[in-house]
Amino acid sequence: MKTPSTMTYEKTGRVARVTLNRPERGNGITLDMPVELAECVERANLDPEVHVRAGRTWPLVRISS
After folding, report:
1. Following CA atoms 20, 24, 26, 28 in sequence, which dihedral angle do they give, to the nearest 10 degrees?
2. Which contacts qualify for 28-36: CB closer than 8 Å, 24 or more apart?
3. Closest residue by Cα to residue 8 from 23, 59, 46, 52
4. CATH of domain 7-61
5. C-alpha angle 51/42/49, rounded to 5°?
6. C-alpha distances in angstroms, 39 versus 5, 24, 33, 58, 65?
7. Which of 17, 33, 38, 63 is the most exposed place for a label (fewest CB within 10 A)?
8. pLDDT (tens digit per residue) in 20-57
9. Domain limits of the chain?
């Protein structure tokens, strides 16, 4: 996966966090953002160490067995 240009992806323990990173534009959505977000979510889904994907306004939880 390439490094996203409009958001950051960081993993701490079992949590992966995706943060929009366009403060100069009020984090306005670009045409690239949905693709980059999908790639970040896929990255978290493929990582067996990640059990929670969290965000300030849209927490997503993956339940693993």
Report:
1. -70
2. 30/6, 32/5, 32/6, 33/6, 33/7, 36/4, 36/5, 36/6, 36/7
3. 23
4. 3.30.300.220
5. 30
6. 12, 23, 10, 16, 23
7. 63
8. 888 888 888 888 888 898 898 889 888 999 886 555 55
9. 7-61
Residues 6+ apart with CB under 8 A from 62: 44, 45, 50, 51, 52, 53
Cβ atoms of 24 and 14 closer than 8 Å: no
pTM of the model: 0.70
